[in-house]
Design brief:
Number of strands: 17
CATH architecture of the largest domain: Roll
Distance between the termini: 4 Å
Helix content: 10-25%
Strand content: over 45%
Oligomer: single chain
Largest sheet: 8 strands, mixed, barrel
Length: 270
């Protein structure tokens, strides 16, 4: 039995545990499955394992609630940046991930929220129509890579349902379809105005979540690329609002949103 210290934080309700890599001892997947459980663990969408390198740099490994490893999380990275600002006074930090380096800057603090601007890399958008077994008609949208994979589609209905399915049902089918060998995150986007979108997220390895940083970026990139929205967007998820700026297709995207430290604690792990 070992005792492991953790931090719990959330970004627009998308919640994460932060654990020092040195405490994982190779048990990343098992820790994620146990500690992220809503009923028998602490509860979270995933764990960010924070590795402090000898050169004083940082590397993050993200494990989803089901124990699968992902390239990165925009919201999870922001939660780590908020924790490093709170605990160590770091107002700008470069966080390396399997999806690339994300530089995060603390721009202000409002009560419990740390507002952080993150460099999110250059999105790659590829318009694509896919066919999913069990879905009667082809699904038009875009495959988007923002360091991790996404498929973005644009339903007409106010409740984000499409193709005779709820967004949760269709998201579950697309996320694990063999068309995406490593799985994919799925976003359902409605364009509210040239400067505002609303969306829902089905996350690979987790299911429906209230928010997603990379999902916000993917949804915004697809909206700009396919629907000619403004290059500065307000993106509204169930958990809250984030701001995205993408000056040009070849430019790096900037994502701004809040993160809150919920608690710190210790947990026993056998």
């Amino acid at each position: 039995m070992s005792r492991i210290g953790f931090v719990k934080a959330h970004a627009c309700g998308n919640d994460f545990l932060i654990i020092e890599e040195s405490l994982a001892h190779g048990n990343h997947a098992a820790l994620a499955r146990k500690l992220c459980s809503r009923n028998t663990g602490i509860g979270a969408d995933g764990i960010e394992f924070l590795d402090r390198r000898p050169d004083n740099s940082f590397f993050l490994r993200l494990f989803n609630a089901d124990g699968s490893e992902a390239e990165l999380s925009g919201n999870g990275t922001r939660c780590v940046a908020a924790w490093l600002a709170a605990s160590e006074g770091l107002h700008e930090v470069a966080l390396a991930t399997h999806g690339g380096v994300r530089t995060c800057r603390l721009i202000r603090r409002d009560d419990v929220d740390y507002w952080i601007e993150s460099n999110m890399g250059v999105p790659r958008v590829m318009p694509r129509t896919i066919e999913i077994p069990g879905v009667l008609s082809p699904i038009s949208g875009a495959m988007v890579n923002v360091g991790n994979p996404h498929f973005v589609l644009f339903p007409d209905s106010a409740d984000f349902s499409t193709h005779g399915l709820t967004w949760q049902q269709l998201g579950a089918l697309i996320a694990v379809d063999p068309l995406f060998p490593h799985g994919t995150n799925v976003e359902f986007v409605r364009i509210l105005s040239p400067t505002e979108i609303a969306f829902r997220i089905y996350e690979r390895g987790c299911g429906p979540t209230t928010s997603s940083g990379t999902g916000t970026c993917a949804s915004s990139a697809a909206s700009m690329f396919l629907h000619n929205t403004a290059r500065s967007l307000t993106a509204i998820a169930q958990g809250g609002t984030q701001q995205v700026v993408w000056p040009a297709n070849s430019s790096e995207m900037l994502l701004t949103g809040p993160a809150e430290i919920i608690c710190t604690g210790e947990v026993d792990f056998a």
